[in-house]
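Propose amino acids for all 238 sites.
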């Protein structure tokens, strides 16, 4: 064990001297603790009681205050140990939680949609205001992630502010399956006589879940979208 520093030893000897106790000396060097514990506190308190002035004894209030101070310090030490254990358990739970996300289908902001097992896609349009008309265009993916050939146009009519869900079976107007690996979805809305683009969300599977460090936000890799934060997920679908 590491020996207590000379300064700390002098402070302890000085305290014992004030209490009327003589510091113990030995000819051989013995290991010293690096900090005082409950046993040391009881020894000091016993020495204080043994060497107090019988005509001016230590008051009960002072003794209780000293014991309360030591109890507080001891409690804080135990609390620190408990919180360390809790942090370790939380870290292990983060790993298990991250693993459970893989394979789940989530609704996240984006315009690149991956077809499901049936060949269809689904998602939502985020309307910032009431729309008198709403149009959704689904295209194959062209060069550099831009829309290619238009394969389906869907009229979603008038809708209030908020998310407006959509679903497409993967077939064109002739009823034939398009069969593309990825699709680009765009939406346009008319509100107050003006037409503008509307933000889209798509359902896609989670392919990777990063284990966050303490204090960091959970990040997930979503197929076709990329890395998103946990707070960006709008909904889960099973």
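Proposal:
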């Amino acid at each position: 064990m590491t020996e207590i520093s000379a300064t700390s030893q002098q402070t302890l000897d000085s305290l014992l001297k004030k209490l009327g106790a003589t510091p113990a000396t030995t000819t051989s060097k013995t290991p010293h603790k690096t900090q005082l514990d409950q046993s040391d506190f009881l020894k000091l308190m016993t020495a204080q009681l043994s060497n107090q002035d019988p005509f001016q004894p230590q008051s009960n209030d002072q003794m209780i205050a000293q014991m309360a101070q030591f109890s507080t310090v001891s409690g804080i030490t135990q609390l620190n140990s408990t919180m360390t254990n809790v942090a370790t358990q939380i870290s292990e739970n983060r790993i298990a939680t991250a693993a459970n996300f893989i394979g789940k289908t989530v609704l996240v902001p984006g315009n690149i949609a991956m077809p499901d097992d049936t060949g269809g896609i689904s998602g939502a349009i985020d309307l910032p205001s009431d729309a008198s008309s709403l149009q959704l265009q689904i295209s194959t993916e062209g060069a550099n992630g831009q829309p290619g050939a238009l394969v389906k146009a869907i009229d979603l009519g008038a809708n209030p502010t908020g998310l407006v869900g959509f679903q497409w079976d993967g077939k064109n107007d002739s009823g034939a399956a398009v069969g593309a690996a990825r699709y680009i979805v765009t939406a346009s809305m008319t509100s107050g006589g003006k037409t503008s683009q509307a933000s889209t969300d798509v359902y896609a599977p989670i392919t990777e879940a990063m284990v966050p460090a303490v204090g960091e936000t959970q990040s997930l890799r979503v197929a076709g979208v990329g890395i998103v934060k946990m707070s960006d997920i709008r909904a889960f679908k099973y």
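The chain has two domains: 6-98, 105-237. Residues 60-101 form the longest helix (42 residues).
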